[in-house]
Amino acid sequence: MAVALPEDVREFRNGAQRAIQIHRLFLALFLAGDLLFAPGEWWLHRAHLLPFALRAWVFAPLAMFCIQGMAEWSARKHPGIRENTLIASGTLLALVTIAAYPEAQPLRAALLLPIVTSILHLQVEKVWLAGTAAFAAELALTLMPLSNRASAAVIFQSLGQLALWGLVLLWMTAASHIVLRFGLRIWNELRVQTRAQTELWVRQILSEKEAKTDALTGLYNRKSFDEYLDFALQISDGTNTPLHLAVIDIDNFKQINDQFGHLVGDEILRRTARAIQQHLAAGDFLARYGGEEFAVIIPEISHEQAVQHMEKIREYIANVHHVELDGHRATVSIGLSTHRPGETRDELFERADQCLYRAKQTGKNKIVAWESAMSG
């Protein structure tokens, strides 16, 4: 049964590359062992040094480099069979290692290499394929040296060795199977939990967004505006920086709804919201305060700059052409007030609202600022 993780999980898509890295490490350890034990090997094999040297220090490294190179080339060119290619190359690397030092029985443990690396492919079949390949290699290593004239004692000794290593390989394959299945089960459970947690977070984020934004325009709603204005007032009082509040109202909006319908009115609301939003500075905060009324919090700039800023927005909106209104314009009136140290949110808004009322009463499509209104 194949149990594999989704292809979009990057951490586990690199199993083949990691197997290649393990093979490279195995090759490097073989070469390091050759150099480390070279003096002792020379002493043990000094009677027939040349055949041994050629086998262990020339042919074996050359064969291992060729096997590894072919495996990496095949893994890149034929990704569909790269797991099988790497299992076969791991088995061949182990065979070359054992053939280089046939008297060193512990080196037969190199046949565990393809079994261990097959876990990285995250498929149970590959583990058993690697175990089968390793046992076939062990069988070949055991039976090939035997001849028809081999004594019964030698045959029984070879078969006993085959049985021993066969049990080791079987145990390692079964253990790798269990480890892989257990790991995959845990991963799948974690993936399910992570997905559920992610969905919960998404729902919470969407819920929070819905609670803070206006469904029609996508702007922040009145609740968010009140929270942010309280925060902005604290910053303004604490740092002695300017803060301004502009209240914007669409002129004659009731007549637009009555004459052209509420769907057209909704579109005018959305279009006006976008027009205001497009002309705001990075630090400005825009919200739909209610009905056809918007509120803008403007920090840090001077009162004169805030007035000019809002005047540009008013002029732009006045020149927007609305096909739905049959040539009529949808203008806005704006009331603006500048925060006074220690002033509350309600007091600041009340002054801006009075300015808006005066703009409405004196012709609409204009901006009235508190200081200008009072001085006038």
From TrEMBL:
Keywords: Membrane, Nucleotidyltransferase, Transferase, Transmembrane, Transmembrane helix. InterPro entries: Diguanylate_Cyclase, GGDEF_dom, Nucleotide_cyclase, Rev_trsase/Diguanyl_cyclase. PANTHER family: DIGUANYLATE CYCLASE DGCC-RELATED (PTHR45138:SF24), REGULATORY COMPONENTS OF SENSORY TRANSDUCTION SYSTEM (PTHR45138). One of its GO terms (molecular function) is diguanylate cyclase activity. It comes from Alicyclobacillus sendaiensis PA2. Pfam families: GGDEF. It comes from the Bacteria. The chain crosses the membrane at residues 25-44, 56-73, 162-184. This is Diguanylate cyclase. Residues 241-372 form the GGDEF domain. Its EC number is 2.7.7.65.
